Amino acid sequence: MRHPKPRLSLELRPRALFEQALVLGFVLLVVYGLAAITVANLDARGIKTGFDFLWQPASLGISESWISFTPGQDSYGRVLVAGAANTVFVSILVIGLATVLGVVIGLSRLSSNWLLSRSAGLYVEVIRNIPLPLQLLVWYQILLNLPSPRQAITWGGAVALSNRGLWLPTLAWNSSHAAWFAAFLVLTVVLVALKRLANKSGNRPIFPVGRTLLTLGFFGLLVISVFSPPRLELPVLRGFNFQGGMSLSPELTALVGGLTLYAAAFIAEIVRAGIRSVPAGQWEAAQAIGLSRRHTLRLIVMPLSLRLIIPPLASEYLSTIKNSSLAVVIGYPELASLINTTMSNTGQPIEGIAILMLAYLTISIPVGMFMNWYNRRAALVMR
Q1: How would you class 131 by CB atoms within 10 Å of its CB: exposed for 0-12, middle for 13-18, buried for 19 or more?
Q2: Long-range contacts for 232-239 (Cβ within 8 Å, ≥24 apart)?
Q3: How far apart are CA 108 and CA 115, in angstroms?
Q4: pLDDT cut 90: percent of the chain above it
Q5: What is the distance between the alpha carbons of residues 116 and 112, in angstroms, rounded to a whole number?
Q6: Which of helix, strand or coil describes residue 127?
Q7: Does position 324 have pLDDT exceeding 70, yes or no?
């Protein structure tokens, strides 16, 4: 069974209560003093404070956003929402790509192939020791100096890369697919809730939840795709640019590529260190029962190494979210960049910085909570 969770004792002595109340009062007094001094200085200089500017029309433009925005009509609050959406999109995309690439590079460093191992090691050492803003600028300049769309670099007619950005194929889904996704989400919530109830009552679930969801999801999507197949949209050169598919601007492409390569180098070292922590006896025992190296790695070594991989991996994920603010050096309109512009236009620096801190906390805390939950799930079972 797992180690029992430590219980917090609420039986405090009067002296301890007095000391904690004294410390809390001192902290509150310091915060109040700093706030009073700040407000007094702002009033003396005629600087208006407050968050009323969030409802004022914003005249600034956003080059690309996942949320519709009309300059001069929409408010500064919508500007910040658009910036937060861009930050979340970049963070999710980079974390997913960097995790896959980092695991591959980390395993490559442990390969018995000399060339593969040394190449992965060289990649890690070079990428980790070059400042990230410099890497973003280098990738951005490389993209801007690529050929025009008429001479774009293409792969199989489905992917195109030029100085206008990156074009990828997309699937055009219809209403039946949207209904299937909604039903699958509801089914997932219901099955997970039933499993939790069964675990709390001490009974085993009637059926395996994970396999059931995968089976129902696969066959449901297969049936819908047969009767209402999604349409594949490929980027096609028309005139001076590509049309169709999904396009990523040079700024977004450079940001995602630079952040992914940078984060993958650190994740590779985390994976390598975690695998190295598994005692050699585990490898020898697996070989003694006839397991191949691939099965040993997948079934024994990786599950054992997760207890050391997950904590630093969570820190790397949070660092990646915060590193997305460096998009300002290449002009991508993410949250920090738009808040800087908002502060310049409205003259509300303190409110802008407070909103920026709160926004990054709001984005980072769920990631940290999820990784802590997964870390507890992957912890070793002690008997």
Answers
A1: exposed
A2: 232/169, 232/170, 232/171, 232/172, 233/169, 233/170, 233/171, 233/172, 234/157, 234/158, 234/169, 235/158, 235/159, 235/160, 235/167, 235/168, 235/169, 237/149, 237/150, 237/152, 237/160
A3: 10
A4: 24
A5: 8
A6: helix
A7: yes
Q: Where are the alpha helices (DSSP H) in the chain?
A: 14-44, 76-109, 114-128, 132-144, 175-200, 209-227, 250-276, 280-288, 293-296, 302-323, 335-346, 349-378
Residues ≥6 apart with Cβ < 8 Å to 74: 57, 58
Amino acid at 188: T
β-pairing, 231-233 vs 236-238, is unpaired
Q: Which of 242, 235, 243, 256 is nearest to 140 (CA)?
A: 256
Q: Is the pLDDT of residue 230 over 70?
A: no
DSSP structure string for 286-333 = HHHTT--HHHHIIIIIHHHHHHHHHHHHHHHHHHHHHHGGGGGGTT--
Q: How far apart are CA 54 and CA 78, in angstroms?
A: 8
Rounded Cα gap, residues 264 and 257, in angstroms: 10
Paired with 160 in beta bridges are 154, 167
Token reading at 356: 């920026």
Q: What is the pLDDT of residue 156?
A: 76
Q: Which residue has the tokens 């609420």?
A: 10
- Find all residues with CB under 8 Å of 297, minimum gap 6, and list them: 107, 275
For residue 57, list its beta bridge partners. 75
- In this prediction, residues 5-20 reach a mean pLDDT of 65
Would the pTM of this model clear 0.90, i.e. be above it? Answer: no
**Residue 92 zone, left/alpha/beta (φ > 0; ψ -120 to 50; rest):** alpha
> What are the backbone angles phi and psi of residue 241, rounded to the nearest 5°?
-155, 170
Q: Where are the alpha helices (DSSP H) in 45-113?
A: 76-109
- Do the Cβ atoms of 165 and 143 come closer than 8 Å? yes
The whole-angstrom separation of Cα 86 and Cα 256 is 12
